[in-house]
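Annotated sample (chain length 370).
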Amino acid sequence: MKKRKLKKRVIIFITIIVLIILIVIINPIRLYNKYQLQNLGYKESSIESILDNNLKKEVLELGYNKTIDKVLEKNDYNLKYFNNYKSIDYYELDNYTNSINKLLEKGYIIEDINNILKLANNDNFKEFVDKDYIENISSYLKYDFSKLENIDRYIKYKNNHDIEYELAVIYVNIGLDKEYYKDPTLTSKFSYDMLINKYHGVSESFIPENIVDVPNKYGNNEKLNEETLNSFIKMSNDCKASTGYQLFVNSGYRDYESQEKTYNSYLKLYGKKYTEDYVTHPGYSEHQTGLAVDIKAESNTVFANSKESKWVLENAYKYGFIIRYKKEYENITGVKYESWHYRYVGLEIAKYIHDNPMSYEEYVVRFLNK
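Output written by the structure step:
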């Protein structure tokens, strides 16, 4: 009996000693592992998850990874997606980890998820995560001008028009899948690159900056934005030096009321169809910005048939102007070809569009309205 008690005590004693030894050995190792991970930049809560799940070696080889750090600091991570997490970009979004898990579960690959994330905000991301799996999602979202909230519209537009993915994205962002003047974007802020068309307007009270009188030598009782006018005058003088004929402002700044009168007079003279093709509704005319000019030639009453027209078409970009309504872009601008209508956008934009022909709508989508 005494021997049994002694044997039991010895076992207990040895067990305690072993536990003490293990604690003494393991704690310094764990502390050292924590130290290594802390030096890489991982947070305490993430480090605990890394060590508890025996991921130390892999994480040390990986180095600091913000997504791993953020995902493992909470309890909604899924270890089966650990290798996926490593390649997914991190963004400050609500329910980030749980949402990523859902996207992976649905079958989205890393490229898809990163394209989704770069375009996401808390509102459109939450809505997107609840959608069914979308095939070829990256074909729509790989562009930096794509919009996550427009994905359903992109798909519908492409299916209806059988066009390339990029064009579907551009055309929807322009608004071509909507009716003219329906649910427009209105702006109250003047800028030299502002977009005004049948989807983007200004209020009735909008007044552009620096509107000045056009000198009688260049127009009869017309007004323009001052910078636009100065560029036009230089262009007109250079045109005369080159062709022998100068340019005139046939129509410049028109306020909301003037555009309303113009629209109604065309309506009476030419009817609805013609007016809708050539005259925009009040509030949707570039003339209300003071940046648009209808040019009159000196050599011919028909501007398109004049020597000046050809010269302006080739040289307007040097003065910050673009021809706004070209024939090949009628389906985009919603306005029939106007050889005389030029828009001031500044030297940089005008040169880019000259060197890389595209509508102004497309330029805005690609570079200004991301």
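Annotation: The CA atoms of residues 264 and 270 lie 10 Å apart.
Annotation: Residues 2-40 form the longest helix (39 residues).
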